[in-house]
Amino acid sequence: MSRHIPFERLHNFRDLGGYPTVDGQTVRWGRLFRADSLGKLGGADWDRFLGLGVSAVIDLRYPWEIDAKGRVPQHPAFAYHNLSIEHRPYDQPGLGPEIETGPFLAERFMEVAEDGVKELRQALDVIAAPDAGPVVFHCASGKDRTGQLAALVLALLGVPDEVIIEDFALTESATERLLADWRADHGGRSPRWPGYGRAPAEVMRLFLSAMADRYGSVSAYAAEQLGVDEEMVAALRRNLLEPALSFRLAGPADLPVLVGLRDAAANWQIARGIDQWKPGDLGEDHFRARLADGEVWITTLGPDGPVVGAWELWWDDPAAWGTRPGAAGYVHRLMTDRATAPAGTGRRMLAEAERRIAEAGLELCRLDCLAGNEGLRAYYRAAGYEVVGEQPAKSGGSKGTYAVTLLEKRLRAE
Q1: For residues 349 and 334, is the Cβ–Cβ distance under 8 A?
Q2: Are residues 62 and 184 located together in one domain of the fold?
Q3: DSSP 21-65
Q4: What one-character DSSP code corresponds to residue 383?
Q5: Do residues 369 and 405 make contact, with C-beta atoms less than 8 angstroms apart?
Q6: Same domain, yes or no: 303 and 387
Q7: Phi-psi region of 139 (alpha: psi -120 to 50; beta: other; left: phi over 0)
Q8: Mean pLDDT, rounded, for 123-135
Q9: Is residue 127 part of a domain?
């Protein structure tokens, strides 16, 4: 997925999803966004913003900034919170060229960490609320105050410092557009300070180092100064991390579950006009045979949670691929329980299948989908698969002979 979300007037709107934690989990996509001023929203940008399903907006600017530049338009879909975390205003554009960007901004961040305790805690309360949906927080340029809150949340989730630093520095890609906005508001003049609009990695690196020196870590700061306890950290993790999935080989006891998953997927296809699977086509005998000559994998929510998906892994597939050369594993019947599976479960199962194939020393993951199913083909292409051919006469199931598109992905050696 794309981290930068394109808008006409917003230049620094990013999804914080996809970042890894030190314990192997991942920040969920579409749950936490950072941005520059949402007061610029309008027209098609406004429609695009509403389409994100945001439930709360946290505006980190001073009230006088909001009076001058405007706030996000009101809408019943989301709550608005003005939480000005900075208490000592300063004129960035007017700073002298002798001011070093990294040390100067890192010192300002430490001031905010000390001064903005109340507002930072309130922001965390909004993000950790039990009923919280997607949340976006922003300041003027989406750089300093926004970057500091992003660092705080990511650190509490367990995202490594180097990843937090990389996220902060991504604002560099928006610097020119942020500068253009400033010049447009100031008669074409340029800021006196060369560091204006910049987000060098050094800023965040120095800030995190200062937090470690003073408090031991960002998490220790949050506990000591903001009153963040284990319950709040757990709430943040529930809201913002992908639920942990577990993968195991299926056994005979799983046969009814596999048939149920397949029939539910068939009914879902039929309801959407997709002529592919039919309920009852494949019973326990099919999956029993797959257990005997290949691998069938079960996906659960955690090691003891409910089954949310499954897939078959074959080590050859002559019906679709014939004698096409290349050491490959073949994925079939990638199925999810749409009532219980978290968003992205299918992609994560596919990644696990790829890992298993690579672990077996094979270079390619192959699969096929019904020719003409453009939606499924696009799904696999977005996951890195390339269309490499078509089998016009694959046989199987109640459809008899049918055409399939062949896709494969070359797996990188670990």
Answers
A1: yes
A2: yes
A3: -TTS-BBPTTSEEEES-GGG--HHHHHHHHTTT--EEEE-S-HHH
A4: T
A5: yes
A6: yes
A7: beta
A8: 96
A9: yes
Kindly state whether residue 401 falls inside one of the protein's structural domains.
Answer: yes
Encode 122-154: b = buried (16+ Cβ within 10 Å), e = exposed.
Answer: ebbebbbeeebebbbbbbbbbbbbbbbbbbbbb
Number of independent structural domains in the chain:
2
Asked if residue 385 has pLDDT above 90, the reply is yes
* Both tokens assigned to 183: 């010049």
The CATH number for 210's domain is 3.90.190.10
Give the model confidence (pLDDT) of 214-244 as tens digits.
999 999 999 999 999 999 999 999 999 987 8
One domain for residues 275 and 184? no
Tell me: the pLDDT tens digits for 61-85?
999 999 999 999 999 999 999 999 9
Domain ends where: 221, 240, 259? Answer: 240
Look at residue 304 and give its three-state secondary structure.
coil
Place of tokens 């020196």: 213
Mean pLDDT on 36-45: 96
Co-location of 218 and 253 in the same domain = no
Check whether residue 220 and residue 290 sit in a common domain: no
| Assigned domain for 6 exists | no
pLDDT given at position 414: 44
Place of tokens 């579950």: 257
Assign 260 to helix, strand or coil: helix
**Domain extent at residue 123:** 14-240
pLDDT at 170: 96
208 and 329 housed in the same domain: no
What is the Cα–Cα distance from 7 to 41, expressed in whole angstroms? Answer: 9
In a domain, 281, yes or no: yes
Residue 398 is predicted with a pLDDT of: 53
Domain co-membership, 284 together with 219: no
Q: Is the pLDDT of residue 26 over 60?
A: yes
SS3 state at 387: strand
Name the domain boundary from 240, 259, 289.
240
Q: How many CA atoms lie within 13 A of 47 on its CB side?
A: 2
pLDDT digits (tens, 9 = 90+) for 172-218: 999 999 999 999 999 999 999 999 999 999 999 999 999 999 999 99
Instruction: For residues 72 and 57, give the distance between their C-alpha atoms in angstroms, rounded to a whole number.
Output: 8
313 and 264 fall within a common domain: yes
The span from the CA of 25 to the CA of 154, in Å, is: 12
Please state, as a whole number, how many other Cβ atoms lie within 10 Å of the Cβ of residue 295: 17
